[in-house]
Predict the structure.
Amino acid sequence: MYSSKFFSVLGIALGFFVLGILLKLPPILFISLPLMMYLILSSRGCPRTEFSVERGELPARMLAGDSTKITLRVRLSGGNPHCVDIRETVSTGQDAYFMVRGEPCLSLHYERGVKRGFLEVGPTAICAHNFSRTVFFTAECTDTASVTVLPRVCPVRIGLSPRFTTSFHGPIPSRRAGIGEEFYALRAYLPGDEFRMVNWKATAREGVLITNEFEAERVSEAVIVIDASKRTEIGMKKSLLDYELDAAASIARFLLAQGHRVGAFIYSDYFHWMSPGTTHRHFVKMLDVFAAISPAGFHRTQYAAAYVSAYARSGSQIIIISSMEDPRALDAVLDLRRAGLQVIVLSPSPESIEWQEIDHTRYSEAALALLQKERRLTFSQLNAVCTAVDWDVSYPLEDILKKVEPWIRTRKR
């Protein structure tokens, strides 16, 4: 095939040739001769070349924010082009482009950072040129590879206070008296109590036998509710939904490691319910679902609350991860509380995300102050009925979740 360069030079040569004949000026006519000679010499056809492309093995799963090195091995046979252009389509960021000399075996490398979702690599387009780039031959390798990019899992600790616990023993305090290690309360000695449970300091102070009670350590049930509506699209480098899913994955891993049964409910343009489970396989399934979620729909938080209250067991812990921009979000929390569910709200601040991406002027500072004032009012209302945490995303999630620490009691030594 002839390139645009060939036709451009040909057009210029024909223009000078026709102009020289019309004006009967031999000098202008002779100008076209070198151009015609260049075309004749450079139009030697680019030999048809066979290509084979091998891509280095890619991991099946990666975490958002990581980078991966992609290797391409291109083999040429049946011809020896002067140069080769190779372009590989990459779903995140710019396509990979190489312009190299035509050699029988080419080994190319490039690196790409990944975002939550799916990294699609391929197809690979190859274009071989002759020395003047006036003749070329193209081919395409349709082989593709896909990598699932999971939300970023961070080390966190979150305390729960569910009233519902299962019959399976585990390391989670249920805030009930029973056999355990965490101190619960003092009470008067009853016949049958073990003497090792007697608090001798309190006994000496009160003059009667006083016994220690400890918290029963039993497994509880938690459901993570994630807002994936269109409101979570904000953010260029990292969207509000990405922050929410990072927090959900981190919290789920911690709770599962502690023995909780953890489920998830995601609302976007549809409702996605994942029944509570305890296994590592269940956690991997949750991460795969999180990787595929994209912002869509405008379902209200109150609709999600009605669905969750119908399926979650009474007394379970509900963790809502949302920007809480829905004007009826407070009503949704009240509905969950009326259904006998314990509620924690973790809210990534949209203002803190946008603040990282805009110019800081006095007007933007005034707008930020106004939005923050409105947000503080919303959280003062939420904190009256549940534990609500406003997350400025410029701070690590682990530090923000320390605000939930009052639910976790530490043993005094």
Remarks:
- Residues 39 and 157 are 72 Å apart (CA to CA).
- The radius of gyration is 33 Å.
- Residues 4-42 form one domain.
- Residues 362-382 form the longest helix (21 residues).
